[in-house]
Specification:
The complex is a heterodimer of chains A (400) and B (637). Chain A is α/β, with parallel strands linked by helices. Chain A has three domains: 216 residues, NADH-ubiquinone oxidoreductase 51kDa subunit (Rossmann fold), CATH 3.40.50.11540; 73 residues, Ubiquitin-like (UB roll); 88 residues, de novo design (two linked rop proteins), CATH 1.20.1440.230. Helices cover 44% and strands 14% of the residues of chain A. In chain A, helix 5 crosses helix 8 and helix 13 packs across helix 15. The relative contact order of chain A is 0.13. Chain B has a domain of 211 residues: Fe-only Hydrogenase (Larger Subunit), Chain L, domain 3 (3-Layer(aba) Sandwich), CATH 3.40.950.10. Helices cover 32% and strands 12% of the residues of chain B. In chain B, the strands form five sheets. Chain B has a five-stranded mixed sheet with strand order 2-1-5-3-4, with helices on both faces. In chain B, strands 11-10-13-14 form a four-stranded parallel sheet, sandwiched between helices. The longest helix of chain B has 23 residues. Chain B is globular, with a radius of gyration of 26 Å. Classes of the chains: A alpha/beta (400), B alpha/beta (637). Chains A and B meet through helix 7, helix 11, helix 12 and helix 13 of A and helix 2 of B.
Chain lengths: 400, 637
Amino acid sequence: MKNKIKRSGPVLFSGYNRGEAIRKVITMSREDILFNIKESRLKGRGGAGFPTSTKWMLVAAASSEEKYVICNADEGEPGTFKDRVLLVEYPEMVLDGMVVGGYTMGAKKGIIYLRGEYEYILKSLQDYIVQMRKDNLLGKNILGNEGFDFDIEIFLGSGAYVCGEETALIESLEGNRGEARNRPPFPVSTGYLGNPTSVNNVETFAAVSHIVIKGGEWYRKMGTDKSSGSKLFSISGDCERPGVYELPWGITINDVLIMVGAKNTKAVQVGGASGVCLSKDHFNRSLAYEDVSTGGSIIIFNESRNMLSVLKNFMEFFVEESCGQCTPCRIGNVKLLEGVEMLEKGEFTFSYINRLKDLGRTMQLASKCGLGQSSPNSFISILDNFKGEILNRTGGKNGN
Amino acid sequence: MEIKGTRAPVSQQSLQVEKPEHPEHIGGSVSIEINDRKYSVPFGTTILEACQMNQIHIPTLCHHPDLCVAGVCRICVVEVEGMRTLQASCAYPITNPLKIKTTSDSVRKARKNIMDLMLSEHYGECYACFRNQNCELQKLAKEYGSDGFNFGHVTKSRYDVDHSSYSVIRDMDKCILCKRCVRTCIDLQEVGVLEAIDRGKDTHIGTFFDKPLSDVICINCGQCINRCPTAALRANDPRDEIWEAIDNPNKHVVIQTAPSPRAAIGEEFGNAPGKSFTGEMNTALRKIGFNKVFDTNFTADLTIMEEGTELILRLYKALVVKDETVALPQFTSCSPGWVKYLEHFYPEFIDNLSSAKSPQQMFGALIKTYYAELNNINPEDIVSVALMPCSAKKFECNRPEMNSSGYKDVDYGLTTRELAQMIKEAGIHLPEMEQSHFDDPFGEASGAGLIFGATGGVMEAALRSVVEFVTGHKAEDLFSNANVIPVRGFEGVKYFEIPLTEVGPVPGILKPLVPNWDWLKGVTLKIAVAHGTANAKKVMDNIKAGGKFSECHFVEFMACPGGCIGGGGQPIPTNAEVRKQRANAIYTEDESLPLRKSHENEHVVNLYETFLTDGPCGHKSHKLLHTHYIKRGKYIS
């Protein structure tokens, strides 16, 4: 598969020497490393945006013999492909970041949870790990540093979208059905096999490798106040130059559209199927945790697209990918999809559609994990932002 | 005792709350606010528990006090200040001060929507359902004022009803996926037959490769039935066949009644748990039309004679004859769920199972032989019903080897719930019945037989007799009021030692079997009691590893938590408090009886004098009262 890196930035797609971050951190104290990450204000790049330093501090502070560093490479969000590109093109940044995590948090074991569909990367990653062991970047007494042991293992997922949710991922790792756990307790205290565990996104580890070398302050200078650094965006859909872009946080959607050569754009889906769908009047908004937050997926739809079909596609996805554990997500998504089908046929009442939007809000509030909490986002945002198109198209003839 | 290893995924285990290093600094309790009122609760309490402690009602559905937390139905959500989403109160441990709202606008809307979603997928009509008026979903729908199917309602059946099992029927159209059955099977019982299969809208509870229940390693304990909030699980109901037999003038219909149903059946008629309705039930059974009403406690006494003798013989062979093939410890075999569990999970230990049949099956064999002869009735015309607290008894009476009378020894196993239904159908209000006795020739039974119903009961009954046989002293001299307190109670595994410091003469009935007791002098009798198969598993793994329990002489196992009083055929709900009350009812009745020891039951003595003339474990009793088992293993083709 060809990786389309369309724009490199100062962080992720920049020069990096293998093992550099590891060589740097063994000269630093754990506190200094954590301080740097805190200074950088790095937030989780998977989409949820939890401060990385907080997560690492909690694991580092936990008193346990066994701790785990898990790299969440179960990149399953529709329209996201940046982690795959990182793992293929720059595995050294990601794996070094994991070793840094192991050193900082006192974990001896790292696990890459690789998306099942990425099986074709498995071999090259395994070869890379073997090479790291040979070079003593993994294994016992790393780089001659007495007592610094860390090794990485790869676990291949089986294709369930929900396993990108960190606790479902851990269940899957333990050999159980991929279902989210109750939180609290959180993985930082009770994670893999009941031990303190830090689950971080591929891109987060890559960012860490750069931060420990160049310092937190350098990183924080990029982006916005609340969204520091740069971000990888997977851009697809109706545009001339789809691919992976490294961009500073805070860039507006309009600027992105110009950059990728998108014309006659009607809608932009930010954050994949679980994200929100924005219409033109939102294009001046910026991509940042404080405005339009995203794990990096941007899908562009031009004027020729039918938004109801778009929504239907997303809802079909969630009906299939809900783990089926909790009521709001399992049945709620089915009801939302049925609502879309009613709209398609023009057989609906406004009061029922409003009831479904209310159900969507319940799903956002009451579902057990992020899947159900975010699955109604598309439904609600498309109905809100493209109300005219959807209701005119179907006429709302039974409306009341 | 350090025993590790459980099959349950972490997500289905009890909450793990990190204890603070210095709980005394925070007084071990946390100040919280619920609906603007201040409360103080112990550290680690869940929000649900905190509300229950303070009389604040929270609706629940997937939550069950016997089971680990699931947090999947989401009906119990509450608002916690500072959190973006609502939190499942059953799954949220309080470890820091919280402000909680249990009835805010978003909470009410969420609960209503969730309720409507569940109703949309729940097939069937309430008035045509056996759980009508005893259904937790129905109760919640009422509580939330449901007045329509706001998100539609399934009109077509999606699943075939699984009738394959003799014991448990599964109707997945009624399932709301609360997973209580899954947690019961995996976590409470550690059998692991049921699990969620597929995902999303296709999620359903199923067995290994969705095989019929009869073709998997289900032990028929029926604990899943007791915890199902709806009508998705039920016992295989023989009421129609029994009514038909009663209506047939050519059939002689007899019923034996086990000790546990009488201690629980009142609950089906609105009584609080803890009161026995033995006499009232006898009268009701006769009114329904049963020709004879017998007391299973009689064959419980007989079981003690047979199983106790078997134990003595095993010990004699092991200690005196030095026969190394003798399997010890001897395991009880009264609980058919436990027997099947052992056959599947520890088939290499089936020689340890007492060959004595369960009281139900002993009774079955006697009714169609001894009783038929005595009353000159053709056994073919006898319909033998067994009232049991148990769903596995239905399977047991259908085991092909259970026909030593030449006929099917017991025709139907009837549960407490099903009998209550028959009594209601007959227009009888049980508590209003006058009391009456059991029928002869099995009319007398001891309190020892009665306490078989509670965990430790079989052991206590056996000890009351064995200790008298061997020491020559009265049981009352060794245990205050003949109550063997150490084997009572609900601790998962109980262990007890009795040093036999002196021995007496061999009683007449055992003289053909052992010359004297000298070989037992100085021996310390070691016994253990386990209830619930999860606890049985602990003991079995310990025995397998050569641990402390492998040194035991006799171990009582019951498949169900609490023993038979907590059986899969007992009234719903069953939980720890209810089990305690039912056990109290049994122990109270035991103490009120004049006869407390099995070997003093004159009818049992008479049976050995007139019918089983070659004595306990003799030829005839072996033919009628003993059985064999099958090494089933876990792989069933």
